[in-house]
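Same chain as my last thread, 282 residues:
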Amino acid sequence: MTLQRPCRALLFVPASRPDRVHKALATNADLVCVDLEDGVGASEKDSSRQSLISLLSAGNLDLARLSVRVNDPATELGRKDLQAIADLQQSLELVLIPKAADASTVEQVFEQCPNIQKSMVIIETAKGLSNVFALAAHELVSAVCFGSADWSTEMDCTMEWDALLYARSRIIHAAAEGGSTPIDGAWLQLDDEEGLETESRQLRSLGFKGRIALHPKQIAAILRSFTPNAKTIAQAKEVLDAVTQNKAGAFQVNGLMVDEPVIKRARRVLESVGISHSDVTK
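reply #2:
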């Protein structure tokens, strides 16, 4: 099952800085992830977990836009994270599972935490990529995220486009077949907005629906990249307007050959910006 809300920009906040969570939710990021894993130093793991639980227990957060990345569930830190979440009174919308290796990893998380609604598995190991089709199709998985930094470290490759293209393409294929939402990892160069936007547009053309943001200043470029532009939206409207006037299997709209796949794509474009087919044809 796919995510029920857009996830173009997923803003990460370290759990060691709970003061930043409200600020993050005040941005226009689609989702905010409070990170217990790589964003938190080893000496701060326990205190950060307690800070997160206190924050969630206060009950004044938009939980529909809030997610949590736990530590690897196969580790003691991960098991402590999951136990703390399980002890919460409220349900948590989305949990990010790092180092997802196979279906048993996902099932372990939900067995320990029945108050979790959805999961996003992070593919960042060779074993995870080998099993990505089963993970993407799992009934408990709503999204598949590419952990490009950890992946490139394990593969001993660079983070350049060509070096990561195979892994990204396999994740896109698995997500499409399994019905989950594909999300890409972070752009690490915080002062390179042009590079971020260029790569994000390439990711969108490949099929990704969004990516991780490490800083609020990255959100605008990411949203621009994963949101259809005015020309694309206008063309989609023209296609769907023409559908009601043409009974043939294929027809032209301003030189564009239109058939069922093009119609489906037009609907998808408009749905991504909150416009339904009925709104177009009124």
